């Protein structure tokens, strides 16, 4: 819902009822990841998307029905080869969509959750999507130090379930993860196949991941633009005030004049495993102190621009300051995929492509070169799940 939070907040503030359809499960070549959402208000206005078009019409009708009846529903959409016009995913995947009606003021957890999302405060929404009928649709909004809403004022088993759901949601919020959690009524972790369980869909809403671009050069402006396009909060940092200006980088969220390593030291509480560092200075006096620190931090990606010769010289200097081969091995250098890029814009595309491939586990080969899964991260998650069940 983060992508459509502004519209949801507007509907909510005006007292308008609406329904939110959320992708809660995918398999095969499903077009959207879990968490993708479509919302429809009482007047029929729609925002967002769950499938990129395949089943949007059917989900829209489910949302309208949910607004009218006030009842949540979990619906599965899959491929149908019997009727070319049947409601299904032509790509051959399976999409599970949970539709929940929301009436402002009726559910403290949803009220708090929407307010947190709109304000940018990290929050996880744990919603019951399968289980006892009395619990389906129940929501708990969890922050780092509090939670809102209750699953039920009733039995002790539900109290244990609520405590476990809050703990699981808080752990997922801390990791910035979204996905399913299956618990028994007594709060113990369970498999989906077990009877008498409750399935939660936990959505973590955290600030946008950060992209730190070091080096206020012409290539940096293009990298900033594509970083924003990918959804990053982008900061440009350079020690030279004549180059590091907001006028030269109007698309950046921040432009900082500081030595790169010193700025990185000041950001340790604002970076995490989703953070991307693009070092474009290719100047040893800036690069080495910065990379000495960056390659020892738990960030998602560290790449550095430069020629092959610069790369070899930089690696030698990093060894001299004490970095191990394993630490140096984390450096993506020269940064970017081999697209034959020449212009700043083409170079930015190659940099972005490597970042996406690194994050999602892509092979970097043309899709036409193979016949394996298109979505590598989903395939990897399914393999991990199969291994855990086998164990």
From TrEMBL:
Domain XdhC Rossmann: 211-355
Matches recorded under InterPro entries: MoCofactor_Util/Proc, XdhC_CoxI, XdhC_Rossmann_dom
Superkingdom field: Bacteria
Pfam families cross-referenced by the UniProt entry: XdhC_C (PF13478), XdhC_CoxI (PF02625)
The XdhC- CoxI domain, residue ranges: 11-78, 117-179
Protein name (database record): XdhC family protein
């Amino acid at each position: 819902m983060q992508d459509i939070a502004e519209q949801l907040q507007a509907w909510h503030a005006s007292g308008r009822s609406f329904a939110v359809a959320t992708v809660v499960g995918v398999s095969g070549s499903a077009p959207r990841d879990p968490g993708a959402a479509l919302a429809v208000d009482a007047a029929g206005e729609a925002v967002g998307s769950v499938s990129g078009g395949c089943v949007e019409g059917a989900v829209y009708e489910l949302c309208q029905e949910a607004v009218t009846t006030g009842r949540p529903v979990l619906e599965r959409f899959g491929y149908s080869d019997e009727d070319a016009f049947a409601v299904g995913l032509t790509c051959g995947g399976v999409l599970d969509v949970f539709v929940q009606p929301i009436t402002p003021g009726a559910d403290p957890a949803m009220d708090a959750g929407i307010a947190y999302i709109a304000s940018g405060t990290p929050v996880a929404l744990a919603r019951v999507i399968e289980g006892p009928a009395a619990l389906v649709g129940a929501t708990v909004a969890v922050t780092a130090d509090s939670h809102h809403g209750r699953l039920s004022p009733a039995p002790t088993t539900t109290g244990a379930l609520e405590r476990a759901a809050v703990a699981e949601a808080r752990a997922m919020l801390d990791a910035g993860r979204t996905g399913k959690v299956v618990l028994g009524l007594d709060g113990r972790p369970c498999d989906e196949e077990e009877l008498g369980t409750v399935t939660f869909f936990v959505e973590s809403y955290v600030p946008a991941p950060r992209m730190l671009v070091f080096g206020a050069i012409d290539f940096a402006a293009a990298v900033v633009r594509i970083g924003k396009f990918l959804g990053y909060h982008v900061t440009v940092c350079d020690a030279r005030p004549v180059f590091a200006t907001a006028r030269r980088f109007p698309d950046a969220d921040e432009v900082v004049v500081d030595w790169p390593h010193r700025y990185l030291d000041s950001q340790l509480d604002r970076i995490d495993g989703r953070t991307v560092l693009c070092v474009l200075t290719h100047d040893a006096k800036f690069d080495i102190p910065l990379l000495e620190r960056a390659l020892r931090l738990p960030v998602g990606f560290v790449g550095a621009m430069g020629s092959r010769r610069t790369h070899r010289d930089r690696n030698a200097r990093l060894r001299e300051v004490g970095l191990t081969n394993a630490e140096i091995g984390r450096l993506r250098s020269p940064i970017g995929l081999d697209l034959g890029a020449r212009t700043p814009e083409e170079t930015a595309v190659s940099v972005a492509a490597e970042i996406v491939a690194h994050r999602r586990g892509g092979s970097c080969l043309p899709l036409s070169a193979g016949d394996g899964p298109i979505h590598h991260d989903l395939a990897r998650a399914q393999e991990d799940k199969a291994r855990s069940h086998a164990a």
